[in-house]
Design a protein that fits this description.
By secondary structure, the chain is of the alpha+beta class. The chain has 3 helices and 7 strands. The protein has helices at residues 2-14, 80-95, 174-180, and strands at residues 27-33, 45-51, 66-73, 105-110, 120-132, 140-152, 157-165. The chain has a 7-stranded antiparallel beta sheet with strand order 1-2-3-7-6-5-4.
């Protein structure tokens, strides 16, 4: 009986998901990954999005600003080319016929100053994403991403926290201060 209970507890902890917090007034979207508009992507898991009030308002400071947490099976999305594919194919599908996928441009830079030795495979990449706003302006849009990636060996999952905004990242920017609070899930 004790052995059976221990095995059951181990199985539960092996699939334990990180929960992205939900600030008051923010909208949630928790779905399987990949989403229907990018189902050709090979990675499998879940994603959690948090949309602040003002996300869809082009005049709001939080326009196109949000965190997204991917939890994917296996030790994946290690190389820049895989990250670029995951990000560009996701957005291209989101844009539908509104913007040609070949116009999407990503500039990815590894942030060497961010070290987390206690986390397996940790990396931080800063991305300039030249894409499109299919919701409000229906026009080209540049967004900035901080992409935190680490592997969770006990869960056999890769976690990727993306903080994204149309505002360039600055330490004193109130939007980025709020987004960076979500880094508390990195452990």
């Amino acid at each position: 009986m004790v052995v059976v209970m221990m095995a059951a507890c181990h199985e539960l902890s092996a699939v334990e998901l990180i929960k992205l917090p939900v600030p008051e007034g923010w909208r949630t979207e928790d779905t399987p990954y990949p989403p229907p508009w990018a189902e050709h992507l090979p990675w499998k898991g879940t994603l959690q999005l948090r949309f602040p009030p003002g996300f869809f308002n082009k005049d709001d400071a939080f326009f196109w600003s949000y965190p997204i947490l991917y939890q994917l099976k296996g030790n994946v999305l290690i190389a820049d080319k895989d990250l670029e594919r995951a990000l560009s194919d996701y957005d291209a599908g989101l844009y539908g016929d509104g913007y040609p996928a070949e116009k999407i441009k990503l500039t990815i830079k590894v942030a060497k100053e961010e070290k987390r030795e206690e986390l397996t495979g940790f990396s931080l990449r800063r991305v300039k994403f030249e894409g499109f706003d299919p919701f409000q302006t229906k026009a080209p849009l540049v967004t900035y991403l901080e992409v935190y990636r680490w592997y969770r060996p006990q869960q056999k999952q890769t976690a990727i926290l993306i903080l994204r905004s149309a505002r360039p990242p600055k330490d004193d920017d109130p939007v980025w201060k709020k987004l960076r609070q979500f880094r508390a899930v990195i452990k």
